[in-house]
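Work package 3, deliverable 3.1, input record:
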Amino acid sequence: MVTSYNGEVLRVNLTERAIKVEPLDMDKAVKYIGGRGLGTRILLDEGCATVDPLSPENKLIYITGPMTGTAVPTGGRYMVVTKSPLTGMIACSNSGGIWGAILKYAGWDAIIVEGKADTPVYLEINDKEVTLHDASDLWGKKTLEVEAILKERHEGSSVLNIGPAGENQALLAAIMNDGDRAAGRSGVGAVMGSKNLKAIVVKASKTQIEPHDVDALRTAAVDSIKKLRANSVTGEGLATFGTAVLVNIINNIGALPTRNWQESYHPEADSYSGETMRDTSLVKNHACHRCPIGCGRVVKLEDGSVVGGPEYEPLWAYGANCGNSDLNAINKANEICNEVGLDAISTPCTIAAAMELYQRGYITDADCDGVPLVWGSTEAIKTWTEWMGTGKNELAKLMADGSYRLCEHYGVPELSMSVKKQEIPAYDARAIQGIGITYATSNRGGCHVRGYLISPEVLGLPEQLDRTTTEGKAEWAKIFQDLTAVIDAMGMCLFSSFALGAPEYAALLNAGTGTNYDVNGLLEVGDRIYNLERMFNKAAGMKPEDDRLPKRIGEEKIVNGPSEGMQSEIKLTLPQYYEARGWKEAFPTEETLKRLGLEDLVELL
Amino acid sequence: MLEVRLFATFREGREKIIMMEYQPGMTGYDIITPLGIPEEEVAIFLINGRHSKLHAELEDGSVLALFPPVGGG
Ligand code: SF4
């Protein structure tokens, strides 16, 4: 049967320098769809939950979804699934660009990398021809330079690589592809560095993937594209202002965490908003492969160079969270982050934590190598990003492992605004009740794209909820988490969900793979994936208390701005959420696992 | 006085911040009409940071924020 899976997986053992071709387990593929779901299942089945994340025993899975490379809009994504060295739990970092689609065109659904090379190498995939090359000459180089060299060497290819941060196994290291696209979170770049794997170059002669039902896929794709174009957010808003448009909205409701979450309103926020960016530094927008939305930013730096611009998250994290309001400095710091290969959310959040440590006297000038970590210092945000990437001094090395380890080092882990040791993004959960549930219960630690309740609670999509109340939020959290897991597993971009819903996703998936999912069946797969990830975490040693918000967010009140006096109701909503999921004390019950077809995991309870 | 803050495309051809004389009984409609903003284009209307309906009565000294449909993540 023809399906939009290729049916083949590449296994690369770097210790042996052995390359093997394996069939895709189709039963597993259908049960977990692909990408995030299937990748996690493979990782768990291959015994990686209990390994040291930076040891040769950990595996690094680059995996596409069944929609990747098809005619489906936003279907160009791949995921990196591994055990995270930052959280010690499941990592799944998602990226766009074109790399994932080309991997698929080359004939592969996934690459499983295992072991460790004794010297730096890079992998070249040219359709079914796969070669390991020496990468000594690339080691130490930054991401854009490596990409340029490899593109010249392998004409017509797309390049994924790590920068100095990944080589140093910094726990905030990202994997970059196609310029500024990033599988950014949970330290996946450190795992790649630990294997001495610098880059993966892909090239393919095909330019499309044949779906199960060509006509049905065309109809479903055309319908989805129409809906994306007609929707004012996906049809216009994201292209015009990018995700940066959120700066002013979130600030105006009083939920823009400022100075490491000591405040929640930043009066200067408009100076680095999407509106200001458009009027000053924006050159044009940019779209990933087959994406009609085009949310990416291309900006001009002060020195005249034209580079990938910041998303809402780094704008906030280098802006309000570091007490800074200089857009040019943020554009530059974001560019440095991409060049050294660091997570553009966790990196500035860790600088913000370091600034609070400096404010409180834990970090002193003696630690700062001449660049004090003062609130709002444009010099500090740029220089410390670079230093974290290159491991310039002791403090920079410590910071490159994230705010939790940094603050713990000074005896004040409560100053790290993280969940499961991963930094929490740009929305104050004391002012927006639902998002707090998804922060606390995200399987990969602090994250906003594991149930983006900002959509209903702030943006009014698909309907407006009251951000200050708790009613029904546990159920909303579960549904958003489950649908997101499906979209990720399919290989589509989460932003498509501003205009598309479960019926559209089911139609696309069925046409591509020949499955017969209805809306409930599809959401059940999402539920299964969410529970599977949770069981991976259980096997990796997660405890119920890991589902917690830091004290400042979970227990203290907001001190300024329009949401002054508000506090998180997480103590109330967390038990409601566990009930909605069929969990007891943070983990699925036997009954829940059986209901979801995960009976083989009961023994892990 | 009322402080009216405009965002995204609402800034095209208009100031970012407009101060308006307050009069008892005013609602959001008395704000958007003189500004020439059609009701259906207003996706988010905040009164002092809280989501509100356009027909809500305003109070003197309020800060109002208006957004067209926008999204991000
Ligand atoms: S919406 Fe943005 S991030 Fe998503 S696929 Fe399109 S351009 Fe890439």
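Chain A has three domains: 8-203, 242-423, 433-604.
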